[in-house]
Amino acid sequence: LVLPQAALAGVSRARERASSPIPAMQGSLLHAQALAGAPSAPALGAGGHTLVRENIDNVGLVQGALEEFGVPLGLARLVAQEDHRIGLRVYLLDNSGSTSTWDGTVFVEDPDSRRSRLKTATRWEEIRDVAKDHARWNLQVGTPCEFVLLNSTYRLPEGPIVEGRDSLRIDAARGPVQDQLQRLGAFLANNAPRGVTPLAERLDDIGQLIGESLQALSARGQLVFVVIVTDGMPTTRCSGESTPEDRVRLVDSMKRIFLMGPVRMVIRLCTNDAQTVKFYSSLDDEQELELDVLNDYRGEAEEIASKGNDWFAYTPRLHLIREAGTLCKILDDLDEGLLPVGAVRLLASMLLESREQPLDGIGDVELVREAGRVARDHRRLVFDAHSMASRPPVNARRLRRALGLGVGAMLKSTLCPCVT
To answer: Cα–Cα distances in Å, from 285 out to 162, 278, 280, 292, 332?
Structure first.
């Protein structure tokens, strides 16, 4: 996924939009996802840099910037509100030798969604692409993020993480955006695939990083998302073969991090290997582990559709939000099973609402009609990974079925508008 550079410049335009009235979203669920802004005094890690995010005073500014990013209005509002609760995102990037395999995919986005496409790449290229996209995303929402390499080229065994060599911090408070993105690109380019997959060992390092400011995070009501981007089963740093003991060690490392405090986790897989997918999917069922397991963009779209949630386009933005870790249960549950009617109604409203057409208090019949109206607006077309084509954000006919509306209900509303 290549996010538009224009989105970063869109913050100035977002300032203008932030001052305009923002219609309230139907229901109160969205507001329950987020807390008020945290105190602005930052907590510093051992390296002297801000670990806990500073307060964003203008949620409307962040929301407007996300809209420039191509996020629908309702969804942009949700993300802008809930991200106050996220003090840090830490990304563990797997650059083991197996990531040089040529079965990865990279999404190439075009301003004309009909020309967007997926192209074949190495797994490491896919992982690098994920890292760059998430750096831009976190800069946009104002959340500090740290990228930690699994196998840094110059790291000594059992040595501590050294920022700039083994990890890289991206933070809007640290200077010009483009300079930081260039440093990240060079950092990733200088660390080609090598070595094995000592995930447990590196998670223990990340646990120490989080522990530096755990008290400050808790005091501010903030949490940390740890995102593991990997293609393989866990090993020790001395062996390329994954044993049952290695897998137990990884689970134990995860549990230690969760026991530290407010931490959630996402595992983003860059492989279709059946054994690997089965292992990580089994972790999703562990009650002690607060985590979500995601496939690549197209694989996740196919899984969501297979659960019966095929009435909306699964866009690159939706996938990125879920990869980064979200506090919205609806987005977490997309690949778990058929969404209940209430969740369908709320998600459809978030995807369809615009500044020109607020959907506050709209009924189900009107919501379906709005989906039909948006479908006729070619400016609202988006790329969908399930169909691998450009399509409206919501399919009106399928939405009607997902809401449990029969044809009779639509006809009755047409003949007697006072009945909804």
So the answer is: 34, 11, 9, 9, 13
Of 135, 163, 129, nearest to 149 (Cα)?
163
pLDDT-derived band of residue 415, with 50, 70 and 90 as boundaries? Answer: very low
- Residue, of 24 and 220, whose pLDDT is higher: 220
Using CA atoms, how far apart are residues 252 and 283, in angstroms rounded to an integer?
12
CB 202 within 8 A of CB 226: no
Q: Which two tokens stand for residue 309?
A: 């949630």
Q: What's the pLDDT score for residue 147?
A: 98
Sign of the dihedral through C-alpha 194, 198, 203, 208 = negative
Query: Per-residue pLDDT averaged across 347-372, rounded?
Result: 93
Q: For residue 369, what are its two tokens? A: 């009609």
The pLDDT of residue 411 is 56
For residue 233, give the amino acid letter: M
Calpha distance 143→264 (Å, rounded): 15
The answer on pLDDT for 311 being more than 80 is yes
Backbone angles phi, psi at 117, to 5 degrees: -160, 165
What is the DSSP annotation of 329-361? HHHHGGGTSPPPHHHHHHHHHHHH--SSS--TT
Element (H, E) at 67: helix 59-68
Residue bearing the bigger pLDDT, 60 or 401: 401
Cα–Cα distance between 213 and 32 in angstroms, integer?
Answer: 26
At 39, phi and psi to the nearest 5? -55, 150
CA end-to-end span of the chain: 41
Q: Across 163-290, where does the E strand assignment appear?
A: 167-170, 223-230, 263-269
32-49, pLDDT tens digit by residue?
333 223 333 334 444 444
Which tokens in the block code for residue 215? 């008290």
DSSP string, 273-290: -HHHHHHHHHHTT-TT--
326 class by beta-carbon count within 10 Å (0-12 exposed, 13-18 middle, 19+ buried): buried
For 398, the token pair is 């399928």
- CA dist., res. 267 & res. 203, Å (int): 12
Reading the block at residue 210, the tokens are: 């989080």
Q: Give me the residues paired with residue 211 across strands.
A: none
- Is a pLDDT exceeding 70 seen at residue 85? yes
Strands 145-149 and 167-170: antiparallel
What tokens appear for 7 in the block? Answer: 């989105």
**What whole-number distance in Å separates Cα of residue 89 and Cα of residue 263?**
10
